[in-house]
Amino acid sequence: MSRDSLTTSTWRTLAVALPLTLPFVARPDRPAPVVPVVLEGQGHAEGRSEGRIEGRIRVGRALDQRRPRFRIYSDAGAPAVGPGDAEANALASVVVYLEGLPRSAHASSHGAAPSAARMEQKGERFTPRVLPVVAGTSVAFPNTDPIFHNVFSLSGAKAFDLGRYPRGESRSVRFDKPGVVQVFCHIHSDMRAVVLVLDSPAFAVPGDDGRYALDGVPPGEYVLVAWHERAQPIRRKVRVTAGGTVVEDVDIPILDAQERAAVAGARD
After folding, report:
1. Domains of the chain in sequence order
2. Is the pTM of this model over 0.70?
3. Which of 43, 126, 176, 207 could disulfide-link 193, Cβ–Cβ 3.0 to 4.6 Å?
4. What is the phi-psi region of residue 60: left when phi exceeds 0, alpha when psi lies from -120 to 50, beta otherwise?
């Protein structure tokens, strides 16, 4: 083989090999390959491409949701309750969620909310007291009490009135706009609840011990929000890495009227 033919053969070999070994060399007959970038500290050993956020919520003061001691139907429904009622559990009124989740992650099954949810009317109360849903979710409001109820809201995020209906019936509302929707009953003025409509499927309600977890979070920087209906939302910046776990504990201050007066006096 001559020197010229060897040189030509060598160049032909390199011309074929270069697009396979250098991903930044474009070829018209095939797309450029995607090269994964592994950052330091991403927990690659775990073999997971997504991360996790976990922590504990602590509420500064338990909320005593006192209900009136009278009832329209004295012989129906659950007995009147006081501060010890489970509805007064401050942790049950907390929702932890992420802001800034990429739209592609909304279609993921990780942490995605169902397209339907349920808020029951039982014992002259709405259960659950606070219901987080993703925008586009339909919420059913079944009446399981032996009396009539009415479900309505005048909130800007969603205004509706389902009218009065008896036990065994259920009516639904679709919530398309993110926001806080206050829910009431025309018949029982002490019945109230909240539907928290979110633009993110990454949310959680802490357990009885205050612990929460958000799994399947794509790597990136987000804002973690701890929400309670009687406190200003608390926001924390978090950075999630592939296979990593971010631990974020949050204290939520809740002040009653006396505490607010004391704080105002201290500022003056």
Report:
1. 1-35 (no CATH), 51-267 (2.60.40.420)
2. no
3. 126
4. alpha
